[in-house]
């Protein structure tokens, strides 16, 4: 079943209201290495990047988040 235009608009609105968007432009070849690392941990590339950044932030803040 095709997704209706109304559903597409509702989804886009929800995403806009609930998520920040960040564009990352790594050097050529990085994406493949990052994807392999993510797969090794059983994660999507997006979740791997988020978890990695959050781990660094937690370390910097001494775990006070």
Rg, rounded, reads 16 Å
As a percent range, the share of strand residues is under 5%
The SS-based structural class is: mainly alpha
Average pLDDT, all residues: 94
What's the total count of β strands?
Answer: 0
Number of helices: 3
Portion in helices: 55-70%
Order of helices and strands: HHH
Catalogue the unreliable spans: none
Q: Biggest sheet, in brief?
A: none
Terminal CA distance reads 43 Å
Break the fold down into its secondary structure elements and pairings.
Blueprint: H1 5-18, H2 30-40, H3 45-60
Helix pairs in contact: 2-3
Protein model, in words:
The mean pLDDT is 94. Helix 2 (30-40) packs across helix 3 (45-60). The protein has helices spanning 5-18, 30-40, 45-60. The protein is an all-alpha fold.
Record keyword descriptors for this entry.
65 residues; 3 helices; mainly alpha
Task: Provide a compact summary of the structure.
The protein is mainly alpha-helical.
């Amino acid at each position: 079943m095709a997704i209706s235009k109304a559903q597409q608009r509702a989804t886009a609105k929800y995403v806009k209201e609930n998520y920040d968007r960040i564009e990352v432009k790594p050097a050529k070849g990085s994406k493949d290495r990052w994807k392999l690392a993510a797969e090794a941990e059983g994660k999507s590339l997006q979740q791997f990047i988020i978890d990695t950044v959050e781990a660094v932030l937690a370390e910097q803040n001494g775990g006070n988040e």
